[in-house]
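During the reporting period the student researcher (J.K.) took over the structure-prediction task from the postdoctoral fellow and processed the backlog of single-chain submissions. One of the processed entries is reproduced below for the supervisory committee.
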Amino acid sequence: MPTAMLDETNTCRIFSGGKWLDSQATRFGEVTNSSTGEVIARVPFCTAGEVDRVVQTSHEAFAEWSETPAVQRARIMFNYLENLKAAEDDMARIMSREHGKTFAESKASVQRGMEMVEFACGLPSLLMGDSIENLAHGVDCETHRHPLGVCVGITPFNFPAMVPMWMFPIALVCGNTFVLKPSEKVPFSAMREIELLHDAGLPEGVISVVHGDKECVDALLTHPLVQAVSFVGSTPVAKYIYETGTAHGKRVQAAGGAKNHILVMPDAILDQSVNAVVGSAFGCAGERCMAGPLVLPVGDVADEVVERVTQAAAKLKTGPTDRESNATMGPLITQEHKDLVIGYIEKGQAEGAKLTLDGRKVSVPEAPGGYYLGPTVFDRVTPEMAIAREEIFGPVLSVVRIKSLEEGIRMTQESEYGNGAVIYTQNGRAAREFQRRAGAGMIGINVGVPAPMAWFSFTGWCRSFFGDLHIQAKEGMMFYTQQKMTMSRWFKGTDGALGTWGF
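J.K. obtained the following structure tokens:
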């Protein structure tokens, strides 16, 4: 970890005005190595006063940055992309240590973030306005898109590099300045990518980093100079961010939690379907809002699905990710979160679900202090059980046996969440019905994790999203800009001449 990011007490610094600065905070949290439980650094909880100074610096930088031609802003993103390519292995190792993803998962998430930077490099073409001549007699009309000012990103622990890159590359190329508040559990990945961005030639003050808990967040949500807030996290917090931010006049896009459904039809190719179910449910230890924690096998295929999924999940190797190992699934983020997930396993048993694979039995003797929980599979789950309704955010898969496609569609429609819904089938009619009627904003047809690439927006529905314009892609550009329309008419002179110059 570059020493500029840490002070002499091993405490993370903030970034403002193009420099890493010691925080003046008096409260701190701990950053741990999830594989060992070891405390590796402290993170400051910035006060409202410190946040105000950072936002003021960001606001001062906006005037010049917003007047920088969009093509020049995009060129910095090209430079940034090259920096990311050179550092992606380093970033993946940082993430695996502080978060617990396997190296392959960490690197893949960095690469998905880089796709957003690639998209941002081409943003000038989307920033072009519209025009029409002679909209009325002698009247022309045109539109232009303008940046907002200081924008804020508040990001989660589960994708500490990728999710920030959903936000600031678009915001910056649109001409805004940006203040990032990464998760206090995993600050290093975000800090490293901001350092690489600054090294790409970004002017001082255009990008900033603050750290903290609710006090810091509230200071950002209520600051009069903040114009827009982007958030990804749990649904209760997303709702709070949206309500508080909009009440203080901000634009807000707030992506929340999920409970995604995977239907397996009788005609599905089971080898492919089972592999995808296991990857969707247990990839990233289940700590992602596009995971597939709820499988709905239709009809007689249920017994075979449960048997195959249980056997495949049992073969996954849970272990440390901060070193070379054969682990295919890493630890959870904290002991507190592990205890929460274990509580859901206990609740599932108490409600009568059949436990076919118990992840609580996993043992990692080479790293006994890590936050490990193995893959867990429940069969005979019913829709009213907590493990079928609530977001667990861990490696727990629930199987709800259903009788028909119609029943599965109805379950997706009745869920309070609406991120993703997936169907495995070879029947085009079934796929079309599911695509049109399933109650989610992102649909997978024989695709286990239907998370869109950078050129499409992350379109959660229901309580999975609060706001109007979604994160990523064209909607992201619209969120970070405001449109100005101009109508113009030029009159002839009283003598009939077109002007004093005679043309």
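The committee noted the following: The chain is about 35% helix and 20% strand.
J.K. will present the remaining backlog at the next meeting.
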